[in-house]
Every structure is written in C-alpha cells, then in structure tokens.
TrEMBL record:
InterPro entries: Homeodomain-like_sf, HTH-type_TetR-like_transc_reg, Repressor_TetR_C, Tet_transcr_reg_TetR-rel_C_sf. This is DNA-binding transcriptional regulator, AcrR family. GO terms for biological process: negative regulation of DNA-templated transcription. Keywords: DNA-binding, Transcription, Transcription regulation. GO terms for molecular function: DNA-binding transcription factor activity; transcription cis-regulatory region binding.
Length: 241
C-alpha cells in the first residue's frame, strides 16, 4: 500500500520533525525570513529562491527540508501571525471578541498578506487552535449552539480578513500605479467623475459626491467592528428568550 502523502497536506499532519538547525537554516529562520519578505512586498508574494537568498543559502531546495513544501511554509507563516492575536480571559464576551478583532486587525496591518493566506489554509496550527479555544471560552457564557458560537467568532474574524484583503489589494494597486497618496487618487479620478456629473445618469451617486461631509469622517475598522458586535449582541439576546 502506498504511503505517499497527498499534495497540499498541512504541515501539522504526520510531518516528521525538521532536521537540526545549521548556521544558516532552521525552521524558525526560514519562517522569519519568509514573513519579512512578505511584509516588504506590496503584494505579499514571495519565492523560495528569494527566501534562500535572504538566508545566504545557495539552494532553495534546502529550505524544503525544514518546511516540507510551499504549502507547509504557508501553514507556518499563517500560524505565526495567529500567535500575535490575543483574546482576554472569559468574563465579558463582547469585550473579548472586540479585543480579538482589534488585535487581529493590528496583526493584519503589520502583515497584510496574512488576510489572503488565512483564507487559503485551514486554521489548525497550534496558535490558531489556541486562538479559537480562547474565543470559544469567551462565548460559552451565551449558551449558544455550536454553529452559532463559531459563527460569532467567524463574524469578527471575517470582518478582519475582508478588510485585510481590501488593504492588501489597495497597497498593490498603489504600488503598481504610483498613486501613493489619497490626493493622487482623487486627482486621477477627477476628470472621470466630472464626466459622470455632466451626464447625469446616476443622480443619487452624483448627489453623494456633492455632499460636503462625504469624506469628513472615514468609517474606521473600529466602527465597523462595533456595528458587527451590536448585531451579535441583538442575536444573542434573541437566542436567550
């Protein structure tokens, strides 16, 4: 019977331990170099060759001994960032989920690529499991069914990852076009928006463009998170009655 592992297997699944560290390479060094390179890239894209070069290794293939595969490296990178997210001890479920959301958003801002990679691999590493265990403990007080409990947690994390994907794409667009400042973006769009106004085919959008307060206050992630928590609080109250 074949013992070959299917491609794309999680690094946590029956993987042998990595070999002993050398002066140049270890699992921790490979993961740290990969994260640093992804942080520096506007798109978050990295290659094994670039990681090897950063570590002073002549062979990118040598890295696979420590991470198993490119998917294995992704698992390790994602779980490393999950380790930056905090959930307070149980006591006030809303405060716990708020802190989880704010902490996760701070992690995404440091590592925008995390939002994309987190969607690509199951959260089964030790740090991800620790995070979910703490979040489940926080919502236990609500007495909700299993599907609703994970729904509460994923509503908050979904807001984080959705906002993170938008941030990642915006950073890539700004790097690609050279429109790095908001004023640059506004100026580049001005002729097109003036034409839309002149055509008059979208009256509600035109009215919104003309409103003096439309950009006075950008809706922040923190405000969006509070709206999410308001909805979850109402749902929790309904489920208790």
């Amino acid at each position: 019977m074949s013992t070959a592992k299917p491609p794309g297997g999680l690094v946590w699944f029956d993987e042998p331990p990595p070999p002993p560290a050398t002066d140049q390479l270890s699992r921790e060094r490979v993961v740290a170099a990969a994260i640093a390179l992804a942080d520096e890239s506007s798109s978050g894209e990295i290659t094994m060759r670039a990681i090897a070069s950063r570590l002073g290794s002549r062979s990118p293939m040598a890295l696979y001994r420590y991470v198993g595969s490119k998917d294995g490296l992704t698992d390790l990178m994602v779980d490393e960032v999950y380790g930056e997210i905090t959930v307070p001890p149980p006591g006030d479920w809303r405060a716990c989920l708020r802190e989880m959301g704010l902490s996760a958003w701070a992690a995404v801002q440091r590592h925008p690529w995390f939002a994309r990679m987190a969607f690509s691999r199951p959260p089964l590493g030790p740090n991800a499991l620790r995070l979910y265990d703490s979040a489940f403990a926080a919502v236990d007080e609500l007495g909700l069914d299993a599907a609703t409990r994970v729904g509460f947690i994923n509503t908050v994390l979904g807001q984080v990852f959705g906002s993170g994907l938008a941030l990642l794409e915006e950073l890539a667009m700004r790097s690609r076009t050279g429109l790095t400042a908001d004023s640059d973006l506004e100026e580049s769009a001005r002729p097109y928006l003036e034409r839309i106004k002149a055509e008059g085919r979208h009256p509600h959008y035109i009215r919104w463009l003309a409103e003096p307060d439309r950009s006075a206050e950008v809706v922040t992630f923190e405000q969006q998170l509070e709206w999410q928590l308001d909805g979850l609080q109402r749902l929790a109250g309904e489920r208790r009655t």
